[in-house]
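Appendix B. One record, verbatim.
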Amino acid sequence: MPPKPAGKGKVEDTPPPPPQTGSGKFYFKNGATYEGEWMKVPSVKDEAAEVKPADAKAAAAAAASDQLDAVQIMRHGKGLYMDGKYKYSGEWNKDRMHGTGKFIYATGTAYDGQWDNNEYHGTGSFSWPDGRHYEGLWEHNRMHGQGVYTDAEGHQWSGQFFNGSGPGLTCLL
């Protein structure tokens, strides 16, 4: 026999689940802001750090708190993050800079290129306020692979970079 609808023959409406992705502006406690796309994911509990409440009232409060903390909103997609004079505009993946984007530091130095898990990784360029500039390959935040470095006087050095340095570079005068 099929289940009977609740009430007097009426089927109760179930509210739709909250959106799993969206866009908006967020304000952090330290004054930083993020404007862009986000996604909602279940929070990860650290079972090792969990403290068991001593009484029933504390257990009920902890359970209610767990219900409130059951989801976490992460930067995911394209967005702009600003923290004082620091600025990142680009792609995010689960709260990490990932894809293409530009980060400008408070000093005026800037990296524009590919990111992997919060690191410069792939093709990108880095510029300093005094005119120095590097364009080429990056691996784990270091110049690594084929690239061209231009010094403050405008001399260009081209070749293979290894782990942040350029042994055997050729000056392109």
